[in-house]
């Protein structure tokens, strides 16, 4: 596609954008009365305007019905979470029974490791990517220690090649084969939070399973961003947070996927609570736990409906737009952003480099050479919300739900002024 770095061209792209109307379904922070250019939908998605109504409904039912709301609210609370499974199943490529919504991401990964990391003296190693998201590193280390192993020995990280910014699938698969019957678990972030790389989940999952390991994925940056086929790819499990590309609100509930093959098994190791037992007998308050035949068997507590409400509201927008349309616009707007970056790079003295490989979703990570922090501060002061990752990376994620092509053009102009201001000072 031949793009142009002009305002009128960007406006033309917006006019032709089939997702155009969705921009108005979200609240934007404003600077001097103007919507900011929001690049951090990979960190905290914007608030969908319909979320208030979903929260208000619960507040009202609680006010008027109190305990009766569990069964008689407009959307009864006791099985409120089940409403999220179907739309989520479509987004991540799963069967609804393979999905549950509960707790938060790191908590869920711990709970899933209780079931899927069952080390013994021979098979106890975990393979992950080098410099995984810190929470994942802490989780893996503490799990390994909990089982009496040494993280230095048990956790094997696959690194990038010297001088490169991305991982190679063949390096990961080679390492899996090398570890062979010592490998208990593969657990990687499906889309890397730092460089925006999308991993080949299908091939890596198949490789892990071929040596007898379990394979799980952290989909924090993948859910609602890239095409997923969790069931067909035969993952054992996955989990994601909902507040990034899924726009559910700060710190909100996590989704989990547990493959059908692991459902309705009595022998599985699992931490259990009353919301995982069969609904028909739950209130008989019996001693025996009878697992629900879905991923809900992993649910411990009754659902936090006030948190689930905005998540459900957001999922109605995903239903309306459909992942394939979202992905189509994502590819186009990210390519346009990439084009703009290269154009600006030509106009000013080269001062940055895109480190995101071609296997990408919504995010471009830009490595700034020289004094990057001041450029970041300039962008923030001028209505561009982006984020900063040490030592010198700015991550740009133009979420296709609500970002416009005009945003990309305007960003380029602000970036150009920012680089010139920086160079003049130097
Ligand atoms: C955002 C993110 C998390 C956040 O975990 P919480 O438990 O929701 O705080 C974890 N892992 C990855 C890879 C992330 O990107």
Keywords:
Aspartate Aminotransferase, domain 1, Aspartate Aminotransferase, domain 2, alpha/beta, 15% strand, globular, 426 residues
**Ions and ligands:** pyridoxal-5'-phosphate
Q: How many helices?
A: 14
Structural class category = alpha/beta
Helix % is: 25-40%
The CA-CA distance between the termini, in Å, is 37 Å
Give the CATH superfamily of the largest domain: Type I PLP-dependent aspartate aminotransferase-like (Major domain)
Count every beta strand, where a strand is a DSSP E run of 2 or more residues.
17
| The CATH top-level class label of the largest domain | Alpha Beta
Q: Could you describe the largest sheet, including whether it forms a barrel?
A: 7 strands, mixed
Question: Can you give a write-up of this model?
Answer:
Helix 2 (51-65) packs antiparallel against helix 11 and helix 8 runs parallel beside helix 9 (201-210). 39% of the residues lie in helices and 15% in strands. The model has no long low-confidence stretch (mean pLDDT 96). The strands form 5 sheets. It has a 7-stranded mixed sheet with strand order 6-12-11-10-9-7-8, sandwiched between helices. A 4-stranded antiparallel sheet has the order 13-14-17-16. A two-stranded antiparallel ribbon has the order 1-5. It has helices at residues 7-15, 51-65, 69-72, 82-92, 105-116, 134-146, 151-154, 169-179, 201-210, 279-282, 305-321, 323-347, 372-381, 405-425, and strands at 26-27, 30-31, 34-35, 37-38, 47-48, 99-102, 125-129, 155-158, 183-189, 214-218, 237-241, 254-258, 352-354, 364-368, 384-385, 387-389, 393-396. By secondary structure, the chain is an alpha/beta fold. The chain binds pyridoxal-5'-phosphate. Pyridoxal-5'-phosphate (PLP) binds at residues 104-106, 133, 135-136, 189, 193, 218, 220-221, 241.
